[in-house]
Amino acid sequence: MKNKRITKLLLWQIPLFAGLVLLWMLLWGEFSWWDLTFGVLLSIVVIIVFYLPPISLFTRINFFWLGVFLIRLVGDIAIASSEVAYMALNFRRKYHGAVIMIDLHTRSDFIMAITAEIISIVPGSYAVEADRDEHKLYLHVIGAETPEAIEKARKSALKKERIITLAFGSEEDVQRMRREKARYLSSKRKKALADAVEGLEGES
Q: DSSP assignment, residue 4?
């Protein structure tokens, strides 16, 4: 068991080691056996002195959802860019922003970080804070001045999280996200039914 653990730790360090050697060679801009040897020795020293524990980023890649993710990202950037440009050129109205809280479904730090980065890439919104313990993102969104606009921004963020989870998340992440979504839809249907019953009682 101990030998397996040591082997796993060594395997985790291989990408870091190769990256450090490659970075060293790129800094010199030319290949020589002396530079390669010194880069290997320097990389070993860095890995030993500045040891970092292995961090699992993602366990799988779903290439179908990866394609969907990239296509939607390009589309979201194009649409959001035109909307922000319109706001900037519309001098008759002054647009305000709002900070909204998004309760994420995922419990993965990697999915949470990627979701925050993707939201920030799309013009008109960016993540101002991430609560790792509560799995919440706080976003600043331009033009979120009404409850409808705030709900639209919230749904857009959760859609991004969903696609990122389907593309990179583990099976556990995907199942948790689906359970949370089903729970949310169920509570929403119950609220809609209660409102409808209340409206009928009010009419009667």
A: H
